[in-house]
Design brief:
About 25% of the residues lie in helices and about 35% in strands. It is built from six helices and 14 strands. The strands form four sheets. Strands 4-3-6-7 form a four-stranded antiparallel β-sheet. Strands 11-9-8-14 form a four-stranded antiparallel β-sheet, with no helix packed on it. It starts with a helix and ends with a helix. It is globular. By secondary structure, the protein is α+β, with helices and mostly antiparallel strands.
Length: about 300
């Protein structure tokens, strides 16, 4: 066999391998919208969040959502209308999200199906809910090509609690440029299901408004987050942040004083703490507990 033939054969094999790899990278997930059954399980219900899981018996795309119950409307009687309205609302939010990304110069934007619809097994927290309120948690199959709902509506009525089912406090650690938040329960264990928000700000930023304390500043900020329904800011379990100005809002600077506010987000803002520290560089190490909280101990800022 000549070297020329071997090289030609090798080139053919490489080309075939490239085609196979390209096809595997560009192929979409398999799906069907025929006779798909959705299973929904509600695991945890508190004052401000509902923890659910969803699964399908076939590979399918589906929408999950939540809304306050309406005594004057029966979604199970008017399923098609209800699902169409829900899908239209989700699509309108997606179009708005895509619009701003395009305006910012982004071009590789996820499709509606990959960004909004669920596929396979899904665990989901519905947050920013009102205490002692009845909600409809629901799901239905969507054809990602026709953008239409398919099949039957899966819906469960769930009433939130009047107050949080958890008693959690927050401990805080700064290690170099990293900080760590620990939501701790009564038994000293990490609670991975409790929603909270946290913000770190340079004292120079807060002092721009000399008529307000850090408590006033962070209270207004968290209330604004809640009104805007910024659920992407809600955290669970241990949170680790590198404060370099890229993965975080702040870039720690040596000698600067910082405030970190942490607040529970379970139907109301509670268990709020504010910790204050002056960053001492890459070797800086500090640990804070409730005893260091500015809110409950009225420390000077």
């Amino acid at each position: 066999m000549s070297n020329k033939f071997q090289i030609s054969n090798l080139k053919s094999q490489i080309a075939l391998l490239f085609i196979i790899m390209l096809a595997s990278c560009t192929s979409e997930a398999k799906w069907t919208d025929k006779d798909v059954h959705i299973t929904m399980d509600v695991h945890t219900v508190s004052a401000g969040f509902i923890d659910c899981s969803f699964s399908t018996d076939k590979e399918a795309y589906y929408l999950i959502a939540i809304q306050p119950a309406d005594d004057e409307f029966d979604p199970m009687v008017h399923q098609k209308q209800f699902m169409t309205l829900a899908l239209d609302s989700a699509h309108a939010e997606y179009i708005n999200w895509r619009h701003w990304l395009l305006k910012d110069g982004e071009f590789n934007i996820a499709s509606f199906a990959s960004h909004v619809l669920k596929y396979g097994n899904t665990d989901h927290f519905f947050t920013n809910l009102s205490p002692d309120t009845e909600y409809w948690v629901y799901a239905f199959v969507v054809n990602p090509e026709t953008m239409k709902p398919v099949g039957k509506l899966t819906l469960q009525s769930v009433a939130t609690k009047s107050e949080s089912i958890y008693d959690v406090h927050f401990e805080y650690r700064v290690h170099g440029m990293y900080d760590y938040i620990y939501p701790i329960d009564d038994y000293g264990r990490i609670n991975n299901h409790f929603p909270y928000m946290a913000v770190t700000r340079d004292s120079l930023y807060l002092r721009d408004d000399i008529n307000r304390t850090p408590v006033d500043f962070f209270t207004d900020l968290f209330l604004t987050y809640a009104e805007l329904d910024l659920t992407s800011l809600v955290r669970y379990g241990v949170n680790v942040t590198k404060n370099d100005g890229q993965a975080s809002d702040e870039a720690f600077e040596e000698g600067h004083t910082y405030y970190t506010a942490i607040v529970s987000f379970d139907g109301f803002f509670g268990n709020n703490v504010i910790y204050k520290f002056t960053w001492g560089g890459d070797d800086f190490e500090a640990y804070f507990t409730d005893e260091d909280d500015l809110v409950s101990h009225g420390q000077d800022w």
